[in-house]
Amino acid sequence: MWKKIRMSILLIILVWAAVTTWQDYHPNWQRPIFVLLHPINADGDAKTAAYLQQLSMQEYLELAPYLQAMSKRYRAPIQVYFQLGRELQQAPPVLPQQGAWLSYMLWSLKFRFYAWRQHQSSDGSPSVTLYLNYQQGHAGQPLPHSTALQKGRIGVVHLFATTRQREQNQIMILHELLHAFGASDKYDLLTGEPIYPHGYAAPEQRPLYPQQKAELMAVRIPASTHSSKMAQNLKSTVIQMRTAQELGWIAD
Ligand SMILES: [Zn+2]
Question: How far is Cα 250 from Cα 178, in angstroms, rounded to an integer?
């Protein structure tokens, strides 16, 4: 009797794990997508605190229309809603610098545990949760690497706490959001240069250079085979075919 009960419980857990994993890897774009944004004062700076004080949904208004317009190139426009959640006091665990496979695995477990602990019932059940690590940064130095996990659909995005960076922040947020939905980077991890053809906004353009826009998963606009510049705003980015395939917006 007990053995049977134990077996059924185990079976239920296994089925539940399989179903949630499948859902994480196969987003249902027929249904509305809810994205919860949690701002965090990542450097404890007073200027960052002041920036977070004035932060409102105004900052993220362009995100949903952008995704609707881009998805419309491939399918019926998706419905996506962004919501600005509570400011969190604790930042997500720090991503290992250039860690081995094992330290990355450990980090992703810690990050999922962090997300589970921070979650409150008032947050609802968002499709994706992004932790926005706002900070002042140091002149000439890049911010730490942002990352999103497809499993559990969570991401940490490092952003500058200044209105001047607003448009680039929007690019960062959407880039990580698409990672959470399975899109891969389209730039060379060593050089940072967009990879041809999938990292190009207009790979069929002749002459090929200079390109006018960036692919969102490459974030840079190619000027030649080995030079490019950072996209300055969402208007100068597009979501190309390969990314759309990875997201499940078009059949493979
Ligand atoms: Zn990326």
Answer: 15
- pLDDT given at position 252: 61
The Cα 159–Cα 169 span in angstroms is 6
| Residue 243 CB neighbours (<10 A) | 25
Distance 91 CA to ligand 1 centre (A): 20
pLDDT of residue 70: 98
CA of 159 to the centre of ligand 1 (A): 14
Please state the pTM of the whole predicted model. 0.91
Cα-to-centroid distance, 29 and ligand 1 (Å): 21
110 contacts 61 by C-beta, under 8 angstroms: no
Q: Report CA(156)–ligand 1 centroid distance (Å).
A: 11
- State yes or no: pLDDT of 197 exceeds 80: yes
Is residue 146 within 8 Å of residue 155, measured between CB atoms?
yes
- CA 4 / ligand 1 centre spacing (Å): 46
Decide: 68 and 159 in contact? Cβ < 8 Å. Answer: no
Taking the mean position of all CA atoms in its chain, how far away is CA 250?
20
Ligand 1 midpoint to CA 163 (Å): 22
Query: What span, in angstroms and rounded, lies between the C-alpha atoms of 99 and 164?
Result: 33
Q: How many CB atoms lie within 10 A of CB 192?
A: 13
Instruction: Report CA(88)–ligand 1 centroid distance (Å).
Output: 24
Paired tokens of 99: 């860690």
Q: Which two tokens stand for residue 73?
A: 């190139």
